[in-house]
Amino acid sequence: xxxxxxxxxxxxxxxxxxxxxxxxxxxxxxxxxxxxxxxxxxxxxxxxxxxxxxxxxxxxxxxxxxxxxxxxxxxxxxxxxxxxxxxxxxxxxxxxxxxxxxxxxxxxxxxxxxxxxxxxxxxxxxxxxxxxxxxxxxxxxxxxxxxxxxxxxxxxxxxxxxxxxxxxxxxxxxxxxxxx
Length: 180
What we know:
Elements: H1 2-26, E1 32-34, E2 49-53, E3 65-68, E4 77-88, H2 95-100, E5 106-115, E6 134-135, E7 139-147, H3 152-159, H4 161-177
Antiparallel strand pairs: 1-2, 2-7, 3-4, 3-7, 4-5, 5-6
Helix pairs in contact: 3-4
């Protein structure tokens, strides 16, 4: 039994290392997410598995499909950026410095307005009531690829918790019966 426990722990540790490695390579806390609703159809369907990246110096552009997480909400949202607002640096009082600083210099503060492709209006109804834009810091990642319907397993396990218990029971029974 001790050998089986060690085997299970090594599998779990390997999975965690792969997840953390992907997080470092893609520069995002969540390198893979599952689409949970039909708000992005026809681009993505419920159950599609999305691959995310978030390069440090890569700004978000209009038409980028982003995954963002709003404060106070547990579930990230996958929607397209429809408008951008970049905060400009304030000009200095001295004319010489004004000539040296480009008027388009940015503070790297970027504000986004998003919308699901299948939704009739923008996402301002999802944001905080006093908020008109989401901040770039809310973006978890930009979608770089997807695998259709692979995430349906996750959706089924969350929508029908009894399936989880049956699956765990079958796996436990299998482990007990096939001991080496």
